[in-house]
Amino acid sequence: MKFKYLFILITILFNGLKTNAQSELGALSGRIVNADNEPVIGASVAFQNTPVGTITGADGQFSLERITPGSYVLTVSNVGYIAYSQSLKIVKGKNPFLNLQLSESRQVLTEVVVSAARSAYQVSGSSSSTRLDVPLLETPQSVQVVSSAVLRDRQAFTLNEIAGTFTGMKANNGNGSFQIRGFTAYSPTDASFLLFNGIRGNLYLWSQQPLLYNIESVELLRGPSGALFSEGSPGGVVNFITKKPLSERRATVDLSLGSWGFGRGSVDFTGPVSRDKKLLYRAIVGYDRSESFRDYQNKKNLFVAPSLTYLPSERTSFNLELNYAYSKAVQQYDNGSYIHSRPDGTFDFNYYPKNLTIQSPTDYGKTHNASATLTFNHQINDNLKVTVVERAVRNVLDYTDHIPVGRIRNDSISRGFQDWETDRFSLQTTAFATYTAKTGFLGHQIIVGADYNRYGWTQNDYSYKSSTRISILNPDYTGSIPDPSTPADESDDNKRITNLAGAYVQDQVSVGSKLKVLLSLRYDDYNGKETPLSDRDNKQGDELKTSGWIPRIAVVYLPVKNLSVYGTYLRSFNPQTSNNVLSGGPFPTRQATQYEIGTKADLISNRLSTTLSLYQINYANILTAAPTEENSHRQAAIDGTRSRGGEFSIVGNLNRLSLVAGYAFNEHELISTTTYGKKGDRFANAPKHQINFWGKYALPSQALKGLGIAAGVRYVSDQVGLLSNQNFVFPSYTVLDAAISYSRNRYQVQLNAYNLANKHYFTGSRSGVTTAGLGDPFNIRIGVSYQLW
């Protein structure tokens, strides 16, 4: 027994010495790109005369950890480049970031920056807008990136929770509905407004808030983006950048607790599988569960995301990523909270308590979402690169739900009962080649690509029946589930297959170092058909056959190195998602045209990045709800709307303050008088003014080292909730958030408080004046993160 206790004591002492020693070590990370700002893959990065070394991954990044403080000579080598060496000093506890840009023409190092203070909020580039790895400063489109540091500091776990951090974007409700530049982006009508690594194929259905377990950063590409991505919301698309395998071993555990029984845990493991670090892995697993400020609601999410990267050579990479997300919820679909209608036609938004819901405790939702993505990159030579992506997504939903029918009378409401099972899929193939060339004094970055997307559903089993009327303040849910033998008032039982084939060409022409012209042209062809599977399908089905051209023209001018001015012309060509006769179809094709001018600047030694943009989007044939007493699912195509406005955003670092802020102005209104509205009527869920700010300050005191405080504000002006009722206006609201965090060695502890003033506010409506999305009241979260190695 004495030996047992001695062994335990020695183990404790050894681990204590090991932990203390590790806290005395330093680290180095960075990214290596070529003269075209493309990542240099498989480059060898090592400290001369030491065993410390690694190779760059598919994104050109590297990381070296557990480095004994001291002076070293860093060497970088790769096929096609002259070996480079640099003296640098590693300091304990410091983690500098090294940016290397190699010139292929002159074969010399053009710029070396070693900085530990560079803002983690600031992201300098995005390849999603043009599929070229160029700085945001030279991108001829308004693009905003929310980095992993912002996601962490906000403790944001879903897209809905980070939407207000983007300038000019907001979540309309607790589901997958968002407003961007005055337009509602929503999965059933804009299937591709959510991209993953620039590829179509949304992992989540419209009833869910997209999860961020495996997300490194989130990009908002404002305006129509059909030139590269085909259909999408005319206001913009959201692109998720997923976490990739790293060449160094890392493991992190995150735990969070919060209001309404919220609990969340996740693990993230990554590193090399093989000794030569050519095979890398990453495994992310997460689970969360929560209730709600509303009665009877709860939900659970399970998320699993393994991935592999194989680097057979310095010019070739394969990446396989699998995602599985399971959700189980009572009342999965957020039907919002009640709104009281006064006799004079006005509305009282504070009349009903926030805990009430139209749904029944027996409602439920079960969703299985799965995706597999295989990406192949090959650098054929210094000028030619080929990328091929295969992505498959499957979504299986089983849910029942109660919805409002008619208006509230005497504090009671009639309800309908929905029972729905659907099995949906998307198979996407994307292939493109990037070629760099020169013709005289002109430089060219040419992309030629093709897409094929087969998507739809193999099952769509839906039924609607009348349910019980309930007292809002004292609901009795007895008998709320209709008799199964009762014939359905409405019923769907069908399958739908749509084939989309597209091809595009793009050329970014450089005229010297100051002027760039971007020319894009895409052709899309749609062919779809809906087929009834039984006599229960009381719709007549529909067919889709349409095609069209999508152009883009843009110019970027850099009068000085850190300032650019741009102008762009964008078009979109979006087929209607439904041409069903019962819904009022067939409908004309949706079309959007955007004109945008703007300027971007990197200020104060590139520590702050700003964007100012002015735009106008003309949108024709928007498909909107136009229900009647005879047909609650009736839709109509509005002749046209116009969205115009401006945005200003700023992100970066000022000494110890990291910030992201912005202001957006938008007017989205009808441009002609129709049976659905008058010229000048405001579009639904489109506020004129939005302000966002989030800042984190790291305290300078040595005694308080690692302590940070943060605060944020979101302001949204009033907004019309229903196009057909311009008197239905949600009041403006201001929401205040705050956080405090402490980091020490491998630990980080963080407390976030949301809606500090406990503001009662509505975020947006669906298709009526009875219920609407209600913002979360005051709530808190405490999170702990620990890096195992």
UniProtKB/TrEMBL annotation:
PROSITE patterns: TONB_DEPENDENT_REC_3. Residues 317-756 form the TonB-dependent receptor-like beta-barrel domain. It is a multi-pass membrane protein. Residues 136-237 form the TonB-dependent receptor plug domain. Residues 1-21 form the signal peptide. InterPro entries: Beta-barrel_TonB (IPR000531), Beta-barrel_TonB_sf (IPR036942), CarboxyPept-like_regulatory (IPR008969), Plug_dom (IPR012910), Plug_dom_sf (IPR037066), TonB-dep_rcpt-like (IPR039426), TonB_sidphr_rcpt (IPR010105). It comes from the Bacteria. Keywords: Cell outer membrane, Ion transport, Iron, Iron transport, Membrane, Receptor, Signal, TonB box, Transmembrane, Transmembrane beta strand, Transport. SUPFAM superfamilies: Carboxypeptidase regulatory domain-like, Porins. It holds the Pfam family TonB_dep_Rec_b-barrel. It is found in: Cell outer membrane. Its main location: membrane. Belongs to the TonB-dependent receptor family. PANTHER family: FERRICHROME IRON RECEPTOR-RELATED (PTHR32552), FERRICHROME OUTER MEMBRANE TRANSPORTER_PHAGE RECEPTOR (PTHR32552:SF68). This is Metal-pseudopaline receptor CntO. It comes from Dyadobacter linearis.
